[in-house]
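Recap quiz, item 2
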Amino acid sequence: MAWTWFHRLASPPHVYRVARRLTPWLAWPAAVLIIAGLIGGLVLAPPDYQQGDGYRIIYVHAPSAWMSLLVYATMAVAAGIGLIWRMKVAHAVAAASAPIGASFTFAALVTGSLWGAPMWGTYWQWDPRLTSELILLFLYLGYMGLRSAFDDLQRADRVSAVLAVVGVVNVPIIHYSVVWWNSLHQPPSLMYLGKPTMPPSMFVPLLVMLVGFTLFYGALLLVRLRGEVLSRERAASWVREAVRP
Amino acid sequence: MPDSGAVTSPLRPAFSTAGDAAGAAVSAVGAARLVLARDLKLAFRKRSQLVQPLAFFAIVTTLFPLGVSPELPRLRPMAAGVLWAAALLASLLALELLFRDDAQDGTLEQYALSGRSLTWLLAAKTAAHWLLTGLPLALMAPLAGIALGAPGAAVPGIVVSVAVGTVALSLIGSIGAALTLGVRRSGALLSLLTLPLDIPVLIFGARATELAISGEAYGVPLQLLAALAVLGLTLAPLAAAAAVRINLE
């Protein structure tokens, strides 16, 4: 009985309706939180004693980096569910997540590089976090490339799901090996913003941005999921009714 | 492949008719051993394919002195990195062939239907792949290393690190090869899938080789490399078997 909600998620029309109803409930709070976080971070927070105003890019950089990992984990969990229970909607969630995650990863790379320009004096340093972010981007590209290489949608779903699961086992290994590699080759970087040293006036906007970005992903995912479900079910009769103006 | 027909299905005599007592006695490990022997036999009938990755490795290492500088003092600091990048690419080159022929002539399907653990059979195929590319690469790497300025004393370190590292590379690569089984012209996609996953191997392998070349103790990165190989050995054949099954559906 308690699992009915889970079983109903296997039904594409049900998911389509739920996604449509839920989207504004995520999109509006996301917009409010991101605007509030930006005002808090860019206007209200005091300048850093070392980096001046330059540090403020963290309010976009850190949430993007956080989302790049969260989306990958979501994608892998969805792919795993799709693989184990053969749930089409779970595969659709994974397929809809990949481009969003790749975009967040790209945003984290660009903002990290822009942040590096004033702080390191160069646009690119082989900083461990930046390097593992770059590798994560390659993982996303590989996932999307593999998915698009198959004409048969079901096969594309299941093959790319195996890759997502393999990738999620590897992400921590890659991250720590890159950290270890970096500690051998490079002195500790300038960039140090540990949480204890961050006053609440800086930290709270960051937290607001993190939550805002997460909700933003949720809203984007629901929109993309609807598109994904519609295109997968385009032959079904409920789709004709759902898209009728 | 005119002469490969004779050995396409080593499992047939063992697996055939139900009443065959010898067939029933073949365990998972026994079947895996048959597959290993068959893959080695087939490979030695096509020697030119065996030599290609090695020649590729030699050419790539030659490119660096030509592109950078012929002076050994300038080449020595980058020798480990060059060796590993070349070894990575050479093992990748051979990966495309790992499952392709067997998928095309239906052998892989027979393996999947044989009732034997596909995981074990694929592990055997991967072992054959390592014996045919990883091991020769490990034996050849010191030559390239010395040509790039490594001292003679570094030879054991280079051989061991490349040998252990290529085990992990073959295993990770078997997943990529299994995933791209149904894709035509999979070369570029295969590299895009496999190389990011290979990065930890590259880091620890190059570090071990670098320490060996500079005459220091290389035990720690070698152990980490061995840990990666063991992790790959436990998980990669499972993932590869899952991917092959999906692609055969």
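Chain A touches chain B through 27 residues (CB under 8 Å).
Chain A has eight helices and no strands.
End of item.
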